[in-house]
Amino acid sequence: MTRKARAGRKASTAPRRRSATRDGGRALSRERIAAAAMALVDRDGLAKLSTRRLGEVLGCEAMSIYHHFPSKAHLMDALVDLMLADARVVMQPQWDWRERLRRAAHGFRAMALKHPAFFPFFAVHRLNTPAGVAYIDGIIGILREAGFSDREAAIYFRELGYYLTGAALDETAGYARGPSSAEPVSNETIAASFSHLAAAAPYFQPAHFDATFETGLEILLAGIERSGPRRD
User: Fold this and answer.
1) In Å, how far from its chain's centre is CA 155?
2) In a 3-state reduction of DSSP, which class is residue 137?
3) What average pLDDT does this structure show over 36-57?
């Protein structure tokens, strides 16, 4: 065999070896990249997400990721869509509008608790991807089918969003994990001088989060039910 022929054979096989190494032996896809990115955020936090780190996890070069997502913003949109998929609830025909909203609210909260490191980003991200628009349309549709006007449906959608986003932020990244004052009031001072807070304090703990969420949600649904025209 001539040297030229051997060189040609080496040239024909080398790209395949590099591709297998670059992709970690598995073909890259948008779905695989997004799932790996979410797992990385879940484990290490959003600040640690970069195409370089993601490439290390996937066993590929960072540039390989850009073949599927032309920018990090596109990747973040894909992660938002993954969150929406986790929040989605299959609505059953026997459920009335109250039960549908109730189930949707539980789906939203479960999504936030499943991905607490990503939720603060999700909470302020405009849901204007196709999946986000479809999600919003579905919730508004529940209210419209219940007989509420376009105006009422918009208002109640916003109110539900206020409650769910605030509750989820508080549970995943909120008050207890936020910055503290330079010289916080001691528990001893609270017990001695602020009796109402001291008595209520045990019910601020995570063991009571479920009951608190349920109470607030039922108050909100009851208020919507009392508020205006609808049909069952």
Assistant:
1) 23
2) helix
3) 95
Tokens for 94, please give them: 């026997």
What φ, ψ does residue 138 adopt, rounded to 5°? -65, -40
d(CA 96, CA 225): 12
The residue among 142, 126, 40, 28 whose CA lies nearest residue 84 is 126
Q: Which amino acid, residue 20?
A: A
Comparison of pLDDT for 14 and 137, the residue scoring more: 137
User: Long-range pairs for 107-113 at CB < 8 Å and ≥24 separation?
Assistant: 108/164, 108/168, 109/164, 109/167, 109/168, 109/171, 109/213, 110/86, 111/83, 111/84, 111/86, 111/87, 112/168, 112/171, 112/172, 113/168, 113/171, 113/172
Burial-class residue 93 by CB neighbours within 10 Å (0-12, 13-18, 19+).
Answer: exposed
At 201-230, the pLDDT tens digits run 999 999 999 999 999 999 999 999 998 665
Query: Which residues, 6+ apart, have CB-to-CB distance to 191 below 8 Å?
Result: 198
- Integer CA distances (angstroms), 40 to 22, 52, 58, 91, in order: 19, 12, 11, 31
DSSP code, position 146 = T
Cβ-Cβ contacts under 8 Å for 228 (sequence gap 6 or more): 148, 149, 152
